[in-house]
Amino acid sequence: MAEKVEFELVSPERLLISEPVEMVVVPGSEGDFGALPRHAPMITGVRPGVIDIYQDGKVSDRIFIAGGFAEVTETRVTVLAEEALRLADLTADTVAQRLRAAEEAVEEADSEPARNLAQRGLLVARAMKAALEQRTVH
Amino acid sequence: MASLKDLRLRINSVKSTRKITSAMKMVAASKLRRAQTSAESARPYAARMERMLGSLAASLAGQTGAPRLLAGTGSDDVHLIIVTTSDRGLCGGFNGSIVRSARHLTNDLLRQGKTVKLILVGRKGRDQLKREFGKLFLDSFDNIGRKGVTFAEANTIANRITGLFEEGQFDVCTIIYNRFKSAISQEVTRQQLVPFPLPPVAEEGASGGPKALYEYEPSEEAILAELLPRNLAIQVFRALLESNASEQGARMTAMDNATRNAGDMINNLTIRYNRTRQAQITKELIEIISGAEAL
């Protein structure tokens, strides 16, 4: 298959991936979507979840992202992630630890903005756990 | 005239100072390299964020009800200034020039009858501005970027800013930081964060280019409302990274100068030491000879 789409994954700290891929499946805020070449241009929010990268008809890489934004054009998919980790690098321990820390932060939050922030952290941690469980089932 | 022993002690003390300054220079140089790489690797995100924001703002242009972070509150009576300095000294004019610029801006605004509030990042700036503007301080952050600036730290500051903005605590927000030009030169930069000045690219997009054809999920407004606070965090992050790199650069230069000055001083003192020693020997010889002649 000749046609490919240029996929870029950037986190605030660095550019993580920049390569041509066959398809990416991104967890958009309104539902997962697969982006192939010549996708209609769009900009969307991204929820915490897993990005699947397809090469040669199968998943070549899976990356967990903690929400962000995606910009899709006919030739390019750019994902701005708040945080990105390879799914393979996640371990049950770190995820459990993070979930615990997030739960504590929610309990300790004493103001409205702090609570919102903590809630968000908790959502990310839960999504991370779900992603991990999904991986072990496969 | 200093005795030989005094001179010897003096030379030793300058020598150990030189050891310290040259070690600090090495440390700053290696930290600089790291700070510079992380500043550079943060650029792609900021660039793409700007592009996205540009096309969004272009499609929203002219519509009413744009988020207030972009459009502003409609007045500019209360200014919030974020002053980015370092936690440690011994870095030449790094903190001094930031503090000078902050003081200048604050006084200007106060003269115009505006209200000014300050948020201080870094201990040095806080200490230097405390006496004069202590009453204007809203908050201060220390120990930022001790182990390299992380995005989480920038996010904390940005959240504080958006929080204050939503409470209606200020109308305009400016950040003052040292922009990294090269290892030997930094530039004091004032950047307006709120309301966010759009990059000029956005206006080109507005003139009906292909950029205007994006679909938005869920909606332009919703995305923009998410994107703007995010962008604020990115701008703060960028300023912190630049400031961190500048600090190391400034320290490296300052310590390089100090090491060189210490070297010069050691040379001068050594010459003086040798001359004194020689003079003393000559004096003793004369005393002995003239004593022998007198017999």
Structure report:
The complex is a heterodimer of chains A (138) and B (295). With 138 residues, chain A is an alpha+beta fold. Chain A contains two helices and eight strands. Chain A has two domains: 83 residues, ATP Synthase, domain 1, CATH 2.60.15; 47 residues. In chain A, strands 1, 2, 3, 4, 5, 6, 7 and 8 form an eight-stranded mixed β-sheet that branches. Chain A is globular and about 55 Å long. Chain A starts with a strand and ends with a helix. Chain B has 295 residues and is of the alpha/beta class. Chain B has two domains: 53 residues, Helix Hairpins; 207 residues, Pyruvate Kinase, Chain: A, domain 1, CATH 3.40.1380.10. Helix content of chain B is 63%, strand content 15%. Chain B has eight helices and six strands; from the N terminus they run H-H-H-E-H-E-H-E-H-E-E-H-E-H. Chain B has a five-stranded mixed β-sheet with strand order 3-2-1-4-5, sandwiched between helices. About 4% of the residues of chain B have low confidence. At the A-B interface, strand 5 of A face helix 2, helix 6, strand 6 and helix 8 of B. Strand 5 of chain A pairs parallel with strand 6 of chain B, so a sheet runs across the interface.
